[in-house]
Amino acid sequence: MKILVCISKAPDTTSKIAFSEENTKFDENGVQFIVNPYDEWYALVRALEIKEAGGGQVTIITVGGASDDAIIRKALAIGADEAVRIDAEAKDAYFTAIQISSYAKENHYDLILTGKETINYNGSQVGGMIAAELDVPFVSLASKLEVNGSTLTVEREIVGGLQVVELNAPAVISCAKGMAEQRIPNMRGIMAARTKPLNVVDAIEIENLTEFVSYSLPNAKSAVKMIDPENMDELVELLHNEAKVI
Amino acid sequence: MILVYINSTNGISKSSFEAITYGKKLGDVIALTNGGALSEDLASLGQYGASKVLVDRAIDGGDQQQITKMISSVVENNGVKTIVFSHDLFGKSVAPMLSVRLRAGLVSGAISLPDADGCIDVNVFSGKALGKVRVNSEVKIISLLPNSIQPEENGGSCPVEEISVDTGSVSIKVLSTKKPEGEIPLPEAELVVSAGRGLKGPENWGMVEDLAVSLGAATACSRPVADIGWRPHHEHVGQTGVAIRPNLYIAIGISGAIQHLAGVNGSKVIVVINTDSEAPFFKAADYGIIGDAFEVVPRLNEAVNKFKTS
Ligand SMILES: Cc1cc2nc3c(=O)[nH]c(=O)nc-3n(C[C@H](O)[C@H](O)[C@H](O)COP(=O)(O)OP(=O)(O)OC[C@H]3O[C@@H](n4cnc5c(N)ncnc54)[C@H](O)[C@@H]3O)c2cc1C
Ligand SMILES: Nc1ncnc2c1ncn2[C@@H]1O[C@H](COP(=O)(O)O)[C@@H](O)[C@H]1O
């Protein structure tokens, strides 16, 4: 099975969030970037497991600048066969998705996996957009994926529960917790990653459907009110009369 | 014309009323849904401002491609300029597909109405910052984060019209559906009681569940607790779990690591119960109790019960 895994860079989860250029740009100063956890832990590892069980090829793709090569090498070290970087700043989810679909149209994949969402923009958009552009089915928030020939059996989260569905490849699936276990790259993988192919592809021209015009940090919380652990009646009274939440 | 898509598979939820209320503030609202919801329930959407409800009963909702085609046909036939979804698991899967099909910009996880320049606030960086998004296309899609607006009742019931849209063949076959019985789905819960590794073991969750029942709250947990199997995975909140923004979040024996906070810092009011006065969670809390959960939680439960019966 030929699998394309979409990976995105994301600031390390402990990064300090700040903005520059009059609050219009994320300030990358001192920020450590990682592979977006959903893409790495779930989408990529499940793709590798499917390949290990049934053969095939795993290609990772990212839309981003040359500074993304570090996270691409990390994903190669975990075990992907080759990488593609579409050389453009990922302006919005639509831009990203159309770039990836245009590459996928030419190279024909049986399965395209994305993460559930990126932890920086949290849009949960790119996967569904790729599916719509390719006119193939989309299964979101998959927690299990089994492949049998070209039949895909997927467990997904739906509002208020879980659902098992069946469909035929090609398809796009967004991956959430449960799909696979995190893999730590070993020394051999890291060495091998250095020589695996990383193809840099020019971006195509696409209009911007949306844009972030500015960012802000939430207002600081007022100081916490401490309550005597012996006096839970006081807490209940405050939650009712002051906070008005019960 | 504003189209609000309602997911009515499990009945009509509060987030649907929120989406209609939101849509009503932007213009005239038609609601659209699929599946088997009772017509009288659908008619009640009029109370929140829908002028009519369209329902396609032949579509069961398992196939997002089919739903996308149905919505785009209604959009095109009614001159719809804005489509509103609730940003739940359903909206998250359909809105992006519709965005591409209609070439309409999508604001994903909106938490505000458009401002004077038409920009809408969304949470970014897992709730650590806000971003303002502008949509450049003529047709716009807004996916509204649950609990971002209070539903407002102002009208009576509205007409319900059955429609039938040809959406081609179904490509996703549903084999089975599991619904947790009687539980409040976490992303929709207004009150949440959550506990972490401070509780020492799964056998100690009884008091957490008792408190949740007394309050009418859903239960949640920190990631390590779900990872070691003390609690089911769907309860895991945080950056890599579910992100929630209830009115009240009670955190018991949870240290308040940044990845945990990322999933809960949108909560309106946070109560933290922890033995360690230095626990980082106190910095994000509105009310703090330094104390042993094994004493404080039963006492709080008693106080809640006393309040409820008075
Ligand atoms: C990439 C990444 C993603 C992550 N994503 C998430 C996520 O989505 N969600 C998440 O929760 N975590 C996540 N984590 C883990 C996170 O960093 C913390 O390790 C985790 O949240 C800690 O869980 P905890 O607070 O239950 O346990 P601990 O940190 O062990 O805290 C236990 C707390 O209980 C208190 N305590 C002990 N005994 C008592 C008592 N008797 N009464 C009251 N209090 C008591 C202690 O003082 C302590 O503060 C992630 C980590 C990484 C690296
Ligand atoms: N710049 C990008 N390059 C490649 N894949 C991406 C990019 N941004 C997002 N994705 C993929 O799309 C998923 C959802 O992203 P989002 O819509 O931003 O929440 C991510 O988990 C990735 O798998």
CATH superfamily annotation of chain A: HUPs
Parts with pLDDT < 50 across at least 5 consecutive residues of chain A: none
Number of helices of chain B: 8
Number of domains of chain B: 2
CATH H level of the largest domain in chain B: which superfamily? HUPs
CATH architectural category of the largest domain in chain B: 3-Layer(aba) Sandwich
**Series of H and E elements of chain B:** EHEHEHEHEEEEEEEHEHEHEEH
Radius of gyration of chain B, in angstroms, nearest whole number: 21 Å
Could you give the order of strands across the largest sheet of chain B?
A: 5-8-4-1-2-3-9
CATH topology of chain A: the name is Rossmann fold
C-alpha-based Rg of chain A, rounded: 21 Å
- Total number of beta strands of chain B: 15
In helices, the fraction of residues of chain B equals: 25-40%
Binned strand content of chain A:
25-35%
Q: Could you please describe the fold and organization of this structure?
A:
The complex is a heterodimer of chains A (246) and B (310). Chain A has six helices and 15 strands. Chain A is an alpha/beta fold and 246 residues long. Chain A has one domain: Rossmann fold (3-Layer(aba) Sandwich), CATH 3.40.50.620. In chain A, the strands form three sheets. In chain A, strands 11-10-9-12-8-1-6-7-13 form a nine-stranded mixed β-sheet, with helices on both faces. In chain A, helix 2 (69-78) packs across helix 5 (187-193) and helix 3 (93-107) packs across helix 4. Chain A starts with a strand and ends with a helix. The model of chain A has no long low-confidence stretch (mean pLDDT 94). Helices cover 27% and strands 25% of the residues of chain B. The longest helix of chain B is centred in the C-terminal third of the chain and has 17 residues, at 293-309. The termini of chain B are far apart. Classes of the chains: A alpha/beta (246), B alpha/beta (310). The interface between A and B is large, with 79 and 97 residues. The structure holds flavin-adenine dinucleotide (FAD) and adenosine monophosphate (AMP). Flavin-adenine dinucleotide binds next to helix 6, helix 7, strand 14 and helix 8 of chain B.
